[in-house]
Amino acid sequence: MNIRDRQILRLAIPSIVSNITVPLLGLVDVAIMGHMGSAAYIGAISVGAMIFNILYWIFGFLRMGTSGLTSQALGRRDLTEVTSLLKRSVLVGWAVAASIIVLQIPIRQLAFAIIAPEEPIRQLATVYFGICVWGAPAMLTLYGLTGWFIGMQNTRLPMVISITQNVVNIAASIFFVFGLGMKVRGVAWGTVVAQYAGVALAVTLLVVHYSRLQKYAKGGRIMDMGRLLDFFKVNSDIFLRTLCLVAVNLYFLAAGARQGTVILAVNTLLTQLYILFSYFLDGFAFAGEALCGKYYGAENKDAFHMTVRRVFMWGFSVALLFTLVYAVGGLQFLGLLTDEEEVVRAAQPFFPWAMAVPMAGVVAFVWDGVFIGITATKGMLLSSVVATVAFFALYSGSAGAWGNHALWMAFVIYLAVRGIVQTALYFGKLRW
């Protein structure tokens, strides 16, 4: 194993560990609410969590933009800008969080209008939302800190923070719900407590590991207009690109729901295969962000191109492995997720589409990491726009004849088109 592979794995493995802790929290919250004696509690947690997942996903640019810009500044050895980027990202996160808190009522009402939950679920979800919204400053601060850590070539600290945050969340939720009898309020407060615990730990680790950079912090100009424009240009591209991803994923869910309860359940189960794969491949994308950004900033072309090749090698290896695992045991895995035989049987005709997802999506996942590292965010946005148009055009043209097969075909092609456009952009304009 050469030095590039060791660097990639050193960054990718902690990110993968961080990613796979995410579903654990949701499972525990659902399990806790599942013992409250009413399905409305589970529904309320699901609806509330969905709102915040989408909301924070939209503002994920704070992590991605910070990561790419920081890794480039580190490659240039511009440590003054490195420290300024951290402060700039955190301040923007606070401004966004303040806006979410101020606009919480219209945000909640809009979300409920789209999701249209039944009245008992709506009432409980309102309670959950009203508490969890106060965790927005913590979550968006963590986005900035996490992106900065990744840009500094350190994915171990985000892993420690993520694991600690999940442990605190589980313990606090169990205590509030079963110890204090707070039900939905208990799960919500458990989430908020864990978010602020994560921030406290992140700041502590920042001081412990990077106090040597304090001398550079005094010379930086956080409000430098040129730097601010670069920061917002990068982040606005990622923001718009994320809106495209949200539109496709929400429509995929809604289109499945319109085909009935069984098809909705089928798509939900098969989507878990895509999510599981993405947890692993995102780890290598994060490694690409950090290393490619660093070498791009340092203008080290040989190291940069070698890193791109090796990240793609690891990406295709992971995609091939997941394809083989799904081919051998994917249907049995679905049986572990549900004991509804009707749903498992109904999933079988659509299973080949889910198997095609890893190989269709691997190029887009890896290029996303590289493009974030070199802050080629307009390329990411363009590829997402083209792929989104392709998704809606393909589905609308074939839904009447193919039904749910059309939905999955459009989604697989959407993933492939993102990668194809990014490949064309890289070799046509971006390669140096």
Features:
single chain; mainly alpha; 18 helices
Question: Explain this structure to me?
Answer:
This protein has helices at 3-20, 22-33, 39-58, 61-75, 79-102, 104-115, 119-132, 136-151, 156-179, 184-210, 214-217, 225-257, 261-297, 301-337, 341-347, 351-373, 377-402, 404-430. With 432 residues, the protein is mainly alpha-helical. The longest helix is centred in the middle third of the chain and has 37 residues, at 261-297.
Q: What structural category do the secondary elements indicate? A: mainly alpha
- Total number of beta strands: 0
Low-confidence stretches: none
Alpha-carbon distance between the two ends: 26 Å
What is the fold's blueprint, element by element?
Elements: H1 3-20, H2 22-33, H3 39-58, H4 61-75, H5 79-102, H6 104-115, H7 119-132, H8 136-151, H9 156-179, H10 184-210, H11 214-217, H12 225-257, H13 261-297, H14 301-337, H15 341-347, H16 351-373, H17 377-402, H18 404-430
Helix pairs in contact: 1-9, 1-13, 2-3, 2-9, 3-7, 4-5, 4-8, 4-12, 4-13, 5-8, 7-10, 8-10, 9-10, 12-13, 12-17, 13-14, 13-15, 13-16, 14-16, 16-18, 17-18
What's the gist of this structure?
With about 425 residues, the chain is an all-alpha fold.
